[in-house]
Amino acid sequence: MSVLVVGSVALDTVYTPNGNVVDSLGGSASFFSMAARHFAPVQLVAVVGEDFPQEHIDLLGKHEVNLEGLEKAPGETFRWSGRYSEGYVTRETLDTQLNVFASFHPKIPATYADSKFVFLANIDPTLQNDVLDQVKDPQLVVLDTMNFWISGARAELDRIISRVDILLLNDEEAQQLTGKAQLSTAAQEILAMGPKVVIIKKGEHGSMLLTKDWAFLASAYPVENLIDPTGAGDTFAGGFLGYLATQKDFLSRESLRQAAVYGTIMASFTVEAFSLERLTQATPTVVDARVKAFREMTEF
């Protein structure tokens, strides 16, 4: 069953202790798609400018990503630039140029409208609500957000949170959204807002998946050669929802736990190279081998 993603496709310039890259393929929809496509066909909705390289379009298209919803608008593509400190302790945003993304109003193609699995990547909550209005009877909707929307668009954010099944956010965002310092308490507050599941991302410390009745902690996969963490959160979401799209009982405890592991594993590939390089190289055999190794590390 296919997965719909609505988000950004961008050109990233990244400086790290292990090298730099200029105008590489990035954006939430790109990272999500290249992870989710390992499990299910992906239908992408995003916007790029007239300067967007054809080679990036070709890369997405040849990996089972349906680009009917990729709009090319007059102007320049969304660009982001950032620098990671020594040891990857902090990340500094150097420049953000929204360009055509600033006036993006997602239109869901008719062929996408019956999508059953939907990922609303980190965009304006008003647009996320509008997208959900355009989709007919989705079975599972996953939402991502950020601190900017928590502080600047709270009413629309609360509305979309009440309409989705799963919310993804990081630890600081969970605390900001609820005013609760303890993450487990914050998660229960969020669950009371409507979602069935909350996933709190903690970067190199893994993630917490919580429902009203149980919780699951997934550590990060130990990567030996960290290159670029950009896009790891969206890649986690792609592996997570992509796996769930293959499951009949996708909200069962077992399915959700397995999905969190696959999300973790897909994110581990992302950070080993710039842009989508490792995600394009990872074969099903390689993915399964890493899942097996992770399982052996965490069994007790």
TrEMBL record:
SUPFAM superfamilies: Ribokinase-like. Residues 18-273 form the Carbohydrate kinase PfkB domain. InterPro entries: Carboh/pur_kinase_PfkB_CS (IPR002173), PfkB_dom (IPR011611), Ribokinase-like (IPR029056). One of its GO terms (molecular function) is kinase activity. PROSITE patterns: PFKB_KINASES_2 (PS00584). It comes from Eiseniibacteriota bacterium. Keywords: Kinase, Transferase. It comes from the Bacteria. This is Sugar kinase. The keyword Thylakoid does not apply. One of its GO terms (cellular component) is cytosol.
